[in-house]
Design a protein that fits this description.
Blueprint (H helix, E strand, L loop, with lengths): L5 E4 L3 H13 L3 E4 L11 E4 L1 H9 L4 H7 E3 L2 E5 L5 E6 L11 E4 H16 L4 E2 L2 E8 L5 E7 L4 E6 L1 E4 L6 H6 L7 E14 L7 E6 L3 E7 L10 E10 L13 E2 L19 H6 L5 E7 L7 E2 L2 E3 L2 H4 L8 H19 L3 H23 L5 H10 L12 H15 L3 H6 L14
Parallel strand pairs: 1-2, 1-12, 2-8, 5-14, 12-20
Antiparallel strand pairs: 3-7, 4-7, 5-6, 9-10, 10-11, 13-16, 13-18, 14-15, 15-16, 17-18, 19-20
Amino acid sequence: MSDTRVLISGGGIGGLALALTLHQIGVPFTVLESVRELRPLGVGINIQPNAVRELLDMGITTADFEDIGASVEEWALVGQNGREIYSEPRGSKAGYKWPQYAVHRGQFHMLLAKIVLERCGASSIKLGHKVIGYENNSDGSVTACCRLASGEMVEESGTLLMGADGIHSAVRAQMHPEQPPIHWGGAIMWRGTTLAKPIRTNCSFVGLGSHRHRMVVYPISKPDPDTGLALVNWIAEVTVDDPSARENVGWFRDVGIDDFIHHFKDWRYDWLDVPAMLQASDGCYENPMIDRDPVETWHDGSVALMGDAAHAMYPTGSNGASQAIIDARVMGSLFLEHGVTRDALAAYNEQLCGPVSKLVLLNRGLGPFGLLKLVNDRSSGHFENIDDIISPQERTDFMSGYKTAAGFAMETLNAAPRTIAKNASLKLG
């Protein structure tokens, strides 16, 4: 095959970030997306400064972010007794060169799709094309086997294929046919949004409770200047003792507040009334907290994995979307170094597979919420002064270790050169 073209299986956040990266460096691509229409699905997500840096380098603006979310000012953990365990400034407030944003996932997804279509044209995304398998060809190219929305089977050929098709990835399933099933450790999440006044600052991310029974609360819009209300994203989480006793957990299942509010009926503080916040929600979805066991490689010939297809992880560190964006940018930088070749895929696999697989397991072990477990183990959640339970230095060291593993340690990130040099492009013959 003489014409260079990268096939991207999946038009989610990672796939579209890769599309924008390829357009930036001059590499032709086609996104193959299974749905017939892209819609703004999901609720709140955080985009860490390391990923915001990359998005700004792609030409997305801070004004774009302000339209779909809020700049995070603080990250805090609070015990179920209402007493603070740990807090720190985040994003620009902490000294990062780039903000951290809390956004509505669906609106962020639609923003990426809009920019791809504006820059690259309607033909850059083929909707209703579900990649169900691939074939590495003898000439070094790859063929993606697609099922259309009509049920018809078609083939798309390209130089390389990037599997960005999520936790249920068909590309990964072919690459690793013996992989274990999706892993669920017993944590159930109920997710929704409520118009409410932000707590602590205009945009604080607050984890409240214990490692097995908690609320996560943060705004995904700026406060209205007239009412002071913002769209507040909340996640209610409970871990059951015996996961096998509750196997029929729905995937993003629409449920009623009464299905779970009893777990939080006494969670009332002078700064937050959890039951009232839940009752004021406009809807709720139930999810199991799931991930996949790491695999030994993300690479097979002219095919590689990225995003959730490569490293589906618990959302305990708020970095699943951020890592997908980093994947895309690292892949772009390696195309610039090695060309659109299998060597670039091998280098990408070498650079990211091992470290990010460790991050998957770190998040499965509660990620930054592991600090709640330390407090619970030492005090059963009962304390007057947190310094008597765990020292400020130990708390700081715990969080610093996580940020280093997740790739957004401030000093390192602020000093790092751009992943893709300004105006860098690949000269294709």
